[in-house]
Structure prediction request, 259 residues.
Amino acid sequence: MIPLRDDNPTTSPPIVTLALIAACTAVFLAQGHGDEVIDKVTARFAMVPARVFGGDVTLTVPISAYRAIEVRLPPAAVPEWGTLLTCTFLHGSWLHLIGNMWVLWIFGDNVEERFGKLRYLLFYLLSGVLASATHLLLQPSSQVPTVGASGAIAGVMGAYLLLYPHARVLTLIPLGFILQMVVVPAWVFLGLWFLLQVFGTLGGDGVGGVAWWAHIGGFVAGLVFAALLRNHHRLRGKPQVITLTARRLGGPRRHDPWP
Prediction:
């Protein structure tokens, strides 16, 4: 399922969301992704659970179909526990980066507006750390570097689900060679996404190169934070849904926002 857009307007520019997208993009460009087996930025700033708990990490990295080499990771450039945050600004490929930033763009603006900019930034960073911690605690011996903003973005998705369960999301669903576009409520899209993460853990965390538990941890953190802020009346007022009207022979007529 690929979200294309939602029907949830905002009244102010999502400055923090744009800044986070710019920061992740800048870090990705700094990673280089040249001929190195593991680029230096990833090696020094990714979260490696075994390294966080004080162990030496040696990776067996395939460089061809018939050959692999062993690479010893250096110590992190920050205190090891700091990599729970720094890893959320790293990405493994352009597809990884674009996919994450696109989802952040769709859901982040509304959450930013309800939380307020500073609170939203702190919430995003803390969701990323808690997502990393979930993966760390459930996979403490893993020697695989963990990178990606998806845990923090999962927190944004969890908050969006609680705040806007009935917002509509235009979704692209690839069905073999057919691309189908459907409009679903946010609770359906985000609920199915969460179930996919749960099913992903059945094969073991890290299957398919995905830290499933990090997604689950971030999503639950987003739900909890949004619920706490709402219950303590710390959220900004919900903006009104914009309804487009046009005068026809029969009087004012509501236009559906989807083509």
Notes: The domain at 2-254 is CATH 1.20.1540.10 (Rhomboid-like fold).
